[in-house]
Design brief:
Elements: H1 2-5, H2 8-22, H3 24-29, H4 34-67, H5 76-108, H6 113-121, H7 132-163, H8 174-207
Helix pairs in contact: 4-5, 4-8, 5-7, 6-7, 7-8
């Protein structure tokens, strides 16, 4: 048992096998609906990816950053050379797949440009702000897009500079590294702030407005 769970790959495979077994409740009791099934799959993967993304965002802001100043100097290189780069890999790809599966979910719901995407993307401005569900969802979508942009185009490039990840910036001066770390940290905090209203909007659209 210990040997099995010491291998992350085995643990993840087992997790999906268990999910497949639980899905038998659906297969044996409810008539299969192709459209509904794939909408669920995309929503499930969207949520799983979001948990990875936001979970690591909170790890950085609630655990790693506040704890780093307390780490003895001789131990700090391990954080910057091994732990943080690995966490950043899962962090940025969690953000990417959250976006991808969100788009696939929209496609599977047949969210046409006129009937859904345009009102959401414009926060219902195209319809004169008449649908609170579209306004709410539009705010959530834009907050998520801003957060995704921050991850890929601000936080990640600056962390590459600050930690010289993959030896991309071997000759960068220390003041430039410090400035990059400060920028990455600030936008990570911005994403932490935005994550709360973003998650509120995403959940409220279905549970408070009865939409999507």
């Amino acid at each position: 048992m210990a040997a099995f769970f010491s291998n992350l790959r085995n643990t993840v495979i087992a997790a999906f096998v268990l999910a497949a077994l639980v899905s038998l409740i659906y297969w044996t009791n409810i008539a299969y609906d192709t459209d509904m099934f794939w909408r669920f799959i995309f929503r499930w993967l969207h949520v799983l990816s979001g948990i990875m993304w936001i979970g690591l965002l909170y790890y950085f802001n609630f655990v790693s950053t506040p704890t780093a100043p307390k780490i003895p100097g001789e131990l700090k290189p391990a954080l910057g050379k091994f732990i943080t780069p690995a966490a950043l890999w899962w962090f940025r790809w969690g953000a990417m797949f959250t976006l991808i599966f969100g788009l696939l979910l929209a496609w599977s719901n047949d969210w046409s440009l006129k009937n859904y995407l345009l009102p959401v993307i414009t926060i219902d401005a195209a319809e004169g702000f008449t649908n609170p569900a579209y306004i709410n969802m539009g705010i959530g979508v834009w907050l998520a897009i801003i957060m995704w942009f921050n991850v890929w185009f601000i936080i990640w490039p600056n962390q590459q500079k600050a930690l010289n990840i993959d030896n991309v910036y071997p000759d960068l001066a220390q003041p430039a590294k410090d400035a990059a770390a400060k920028t990455a940290g600030m936008f990570s905090r911005i994403n932490t702030m935005l994550s709360v209203p973003m998650l509120f909007c995403m959940i409220a659209t279905a549970h408070l407005y009865g939409a999507v």
